[in-house]
Amino acid sequence: MNGGDRGETEHFGEALRRRTKAFALDVLEFCRGLPKTDEAMVIGRQLLRSGMAVGANYRAASRARSAAEFVSKISIVVEEADETLYWLETLLEASIATRSRVEALLREGNESLRNFAASQRTAKKSSRRNT
Question: Residue 131's pLDDT is what?
Answer without folding.
Answer: 56
